[in-house]
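$ ./design --mode recover --in tokens.txt
reading tokens...
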């Protein structure tokens, strides 16, 4: 087969994608080549997600499929969140797994692969150190995942928030921020390589720098990024924590055109009683006043949030408060999920008392409400011009995203005709769907740049 090869599947969120790209980079530096078909690889790696039940089942299913097709001489590694927290379940349900790597030492992938391929003793190899780390700089690998003209840039890993429903601190450990200079160096490298959009990610971007002794660290980082990577057209912020969007952060976002007027702030609910049970910030007055400040300072602000329905103790009245809140605030985008019972979290004693059919019905009502709001929001852009980052072209149609759309989770702008992939072009919006916009390339008048 020549040079040793690897096949890597990345499941879950963009933060996992960054870790997968980093593992792939380390393997390639060590002489391994990536292949697109599992049967052609010497090493099979699945970077799993273990956040909620459906994600765990998907991860186990992918592992079982690869284990069932594994050929003599191939090794199968389960990496990531599922392995970190549910190692016994992985070994029990997928006996063909040869190695287990957790979230905290992905940077040891080459050593784990080499040990597995030279190993004689039976049974899986466990590589699951508990020390929390972002692991980026000791090997010199960038903590980015580039997708076309966009790149996810991880600024921290882990979380120190006490949310009752969430297993992330159990999986990832406490929050560990990356050094500012390391992040800036990667941003400059991305700029040199023609990346047009940087998307900052962490479990909680607004907690960036707390462990480094920084105050309002995200705002400080954004100011440095805007100054030192002026060639990056768009800087987007995901996963802001309620209560930590400061006045200074709003001022920094407003002062720098590169920083998009877009914020993803997962609120999870709007009923104070439910929020307190979730161990989430329950001051809804703060939410209203902060969103009002942001909308005043950032014209055209695109707001995204994540909500959970069916949390233990959510009455019909509490759910109605959530619907009323969504109606009042009019988010551009909402991601919504049914509560998933997670053993080991602090919500475990509450159980999972709300019947699945009630959860499902509430989710459908919430998303039907939001679909109408999203359609109205999109219709307001008809006849207006938006800059669109073009990501693909096929059969006379170009597809891209505006500042309102984060990759994979938000909508698209569908453009008639051929537009240059990787470029940001002006588009005149002519039509609106519930999630997407349609339009034509705008005519650029002489004298315009």
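writing sequence...
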């Amino acid at each position: 087969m020549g040079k040793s090869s690897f096949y890597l599947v990345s499941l879950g969120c963009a933060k996992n994608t960054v870790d997968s790209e980093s593992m792939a980079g380390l393997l390639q530096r060590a002489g391994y080549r990536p292949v697109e078909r599992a049967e052609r690889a010497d090493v099979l790696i699945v970077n799993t997600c273990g956040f909620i039940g459906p994600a765990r089942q998907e991860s186990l299913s992918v592992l079982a499929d690869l284990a069932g097709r594994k050929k003599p001489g191939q090794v199968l590694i389960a990496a990531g969140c599922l392995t970190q927290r549910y190692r016994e379940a992985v070994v029990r349900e997928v006996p063909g797994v040869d190695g287990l790597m957790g979230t905290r030492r992905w940077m040891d992938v080459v050593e784990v692969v080499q040990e597995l391929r030279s190993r004689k003793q039976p049974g899986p190899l466990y590589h699951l150190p508990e020390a929390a780390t972002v692991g980026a700089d000791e090997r010199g690998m960038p903590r980015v995942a580039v997708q076309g003209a966009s790149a996810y840039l991880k600024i921290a890993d882990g979380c120190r928030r006490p949310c009752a429903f969430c297993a992330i601190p159990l999986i990832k450990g406490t929050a560990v921020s990356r050094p500012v200079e390391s992040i800036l160096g990667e941003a400059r490298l991305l700029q040199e390589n023609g990346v047009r959009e940087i998307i900052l990610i962490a479990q909680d971007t607004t907690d960036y720098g707390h462990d480094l002794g920084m105050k309002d660290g995200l705002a400080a980082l954004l100011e440095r990024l805007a100054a030192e990577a002026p060639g990056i057209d768009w800087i987007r912020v995901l996963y802001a924590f309620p209560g930590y969007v400061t006045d200074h952060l709003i001022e920094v976002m407003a002062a720098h055109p590169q920083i998009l007027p877009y914020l993803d702030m997962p609120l999870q609910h709007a009923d104070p009683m439910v929020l307190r049970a979730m161990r989430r910030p329950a001051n809804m007055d703060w939410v209203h006043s902060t969103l009002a400040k942001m909308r005043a300072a950032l014209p055209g602000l695109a707001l995204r949030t994540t909500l959970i329905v069916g949390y233990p103790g959510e009455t019909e009245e509490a759910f109605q408060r959530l619907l009323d809140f969504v109606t009042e605030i009019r988010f551009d985008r909402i991601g919504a999920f049914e509560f998933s019972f997670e053993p080991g979290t602090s919500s475990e004693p509450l159980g999972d008392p709300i019947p699945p059919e009630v959860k499902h019905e509430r989710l459908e009502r919430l998303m039907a409400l939001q679909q109408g709001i999203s359609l109205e929001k999109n219709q307001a852009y008809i006849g207006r011009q938006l800059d669109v980052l073009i990501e693909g072209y096929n059969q006379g149609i170009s597809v891209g995203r505006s500042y309102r759309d984060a990759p994979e989770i938000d909508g698209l702008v569908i453009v008639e005709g051929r537009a240059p992939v990787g470029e940001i072009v002006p588009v005149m919006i002519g039509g609106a769907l519930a999630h997407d916009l349609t339009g034509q390339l705008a005519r650029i008048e002489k004298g315009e740049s």
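exit 0
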